[in-house]
Amino acid sequence: MFIRRKYRLRHKLLRIILDKHDEIVGKSNFHKTTVNAENIAIPLPVLCVKMAISIEELKTITPPLIMAEEIKLEDFGKGIAVFAWINSQSVYDDEKYLEIGKKKFNDDIYDITKWTLPFIAVLFAAFTTLTNLSLHKDIDYTKQEIKVLKKELDSLKEL
User: Fold this and answer.
1) Is residue 70 part of a domain?
2) Assigned domain for 27 exists
3) Owning domain of residue 21
């Protein structure tokens, strides 16, 4: 099934951010240190390299994530960085954006099919009607030719 790129990228973004979060949190538990947002944040250029996309494309896919409080953008003095926020883990586990992408794909297919099938049915009906009419004309013409030939044959027999 095809899932649009923006939904796949949103899911990938969450995975990368959560992997960084889990890595830092795991180390802090081991070393008994505190975790702050600056430690778990990933700078935008680094995130773009990990995702293999441009900054502009990243800017187009992040607004829904920010609005839903799944990620947060913050400027820590070294540039803007992204980190996991309130709902990010549950959204990633539920594969929310992949499911939305699948639903959009299914809706698109349904819309295309909704308009295409009746059109194909009308074309099929027109084609069969045209073929039937053509065959009937051919049959009628052949019957007339046979009658003419029979008359000529009868006239020849009389001679």
Assistant:
1) yes
2) yes
3) 5-94
Q: What is the pLDDT of residues 124-151, one digit of tens each?
A: 999 998 888 777 777 777 888 888 888 8
DSSP the chain: ----HHHHHHHHHHHHHHHHHHHHHHHHHHHT----HHHH-EEHHHHHHHHT--HHHHHHHSHHHHHTTSEEEEE-SSSEEEEE-TTHHHHHHHTHHHHHHHHHHHHHHHHHHHHHHHHHHHHHHHHHHHHHHHHHHHHHHHHHHHHHHHHHHHHHHH-
Q: Is the separation of the CB atoms in 75 and 58 below 8 Å? A: no
**Looking at residue 31, what is its pLDDT?**
57
Residue 61 lies in a domain: yes
**The domain that contains 65 carries what CATH number?**
1.10.10.10
* pTM over the 0.85 mark: no
In a domain, 149, yes or no: no
Query: How big is the chain, counted in residues?
Result: 159
User: What pLDDT, in 10s, does the model give residues 44-90?
Assistant: 888 899 999 998 998 899 898 888 888 888 887 777 888 777 777 88
Does residue 28 have a pLDDT over 70?
A: no
Count of structural domains within the chain: 1
